[in-house]
Design goal:
Chain lengths: 260, 260
């Protein structure tokens, strides 16, 4: 399995999806099962090489992904179509490869990424939904989505999001992020909060959602958002919403031609 | 907990919903966990009486219920609202009480039932959906729903459904059932097959679905359905579709006023 004398001359991108319930997030960790570990083991069986894989993002335990991008360089001559099919045989039921592409050598799933979109799902009903236990936050009190949508005007644009980040070595020095879009959509009892940005600080979406729920409870006012942002202090924002409602939904790459 | 000298003068109906993944169906069985068993234990904690509960239907292992009706007679004076709330505290995450009503003494969840509606869900895509593993059948080949909808004309109405039943002591002598409605609806990659009838034979929906999939594969023709029905022999129909795509969706009762 060692890649001695082999030229890793192909750069392959896989688009995967996973139910994060059973995993301690993406990134390999000691003493707990992660998606990356399971994915690497499957890949080794398919391309018969030990390769270094790059994920587009770290996700926390129980966080899900509708579209997560991974790339790796390989000398294998397997077609992208066969990689997809073979990976789906080796992967467990809660992870799948949706698509595979060959890309130029300089593509990197994380560094080439120009933006991401997250979705946070809430089951908004007094009675829990037995089918959504691991897939949406159960929130009892009625949420006025029209009202919450007004947060758009304060959150879209370039801001220092220090107040909406867990202090962590994962956060770079630069705490400024550009939020491209924000929306709150209700379909019957399921609310989806969608937020896209050029990048996200650690726990940023979950803290924004926790703050929105405080607004729904009338404990924070919408017009307090600029003040909370200005404070650059985590304690002014709402709590961190639990992970199981969060989905990495889309990942954006500029000027990349994905060809099958 | 014995009901000596207590008058069981109230008849309570609960509408429940459950994710059947972890259970061996509704009905109490030795050596396996069933929804009825879990439900009875919770109820005992709430009304502090051992009561005999009646479910509207048996469901098989891994089959789900969006709306399942249960009734029991009790001397407890607890309000229906408090039963709902207390039951949802005692029940596990994958079972909930959606509503509770007090009904007349002669109501019986099974015998008073005049019809039921089942839904069968299919994830129709080449790649599996990690979020639907326990909630829909994964079916690879493209299904033409417009075509399958034509089965309506042969299946709606009163027929002897012997060909669409697993031979079992659960089936009564009379194998005639009246199918009230049948539809096949696609929403993107999820197909829902809906069927309502005055009653269902054992495995009837799952065998109808298995037959529809044979039609989708062009191995059975739609115009063969009357012939299959006429044969009154299980071997002419398609296979029994797996249980995890099946949901008891609605239960019909005539002339019953559900008052909260």
């Amino acid at each position: 399995m060692r890649n001695v004398n082999k030229k890793l001359d192909r750069n392959i991108v896989l688009v995967i999806s996973y139910d994060g319930t059973r995993y301690s997030g993406w990134q390999v960790q000691k003493n707990s099962t992660t998606v990356q570990e399971i994915f690497q083991n499957a890949l080794k069986n398919v391309i018969l090489e030990d390769v270094d894989i790059k994920g587009c993002s770290r996700t926390d335990a129980k966080v899900h992904a509708n579209n997560y991008y991974v790339n790796f360089k390989t000398s294998s001559r397997i077609s992208v179509k066969n990689i997809t099919n073979a990976m789906n045989r080796f992967l467990p039921y809660d992870i799948c490869v949706k698509n595979a592409f060959e890309v130029s050598d300089d593509f990197h799933a994380r560094y080439s990424c120009t933006g991401k979109e997250y979705v946070y799902k809430i089951w908004n009903h007094q009675i829990r939904n037995p089918f959504m236990h691991d897939y949406a936050l159960h929130y009892w009190y009625d949420i006025d989505c029209e009202n919450l949508r007004d947060v758009r005007k304060y959150i879209i644009g370039e801001h220092d999001f220090t107040s909406f980040a867990t202090l962590d070595k994962r956060n770079a020095q630069n705490m400024i992020r550009n939020v491209h879009d924000f929306d709150v959509i209700r379909q019957e009892n399921v609310i989806e909060i969608k937020i896209s940005a050029n990048g996200f600080l650690y726990n940023m979406v979950r803290i924004i959602v926790g703050t929105l729920l405080r607004i729904a409870q009338n404990k924070i006012k919408i017009h307090d958002i600029p003040y909370i942002i200005d404070k650059k202090d985590r304690k002014y924002a709402g709590p961190t919403a639990p992970p199981h409602g969060l989905y990495l939904n889309r990942v954006f790459y500029d000027n990349i031609e994905f060809k099958e």
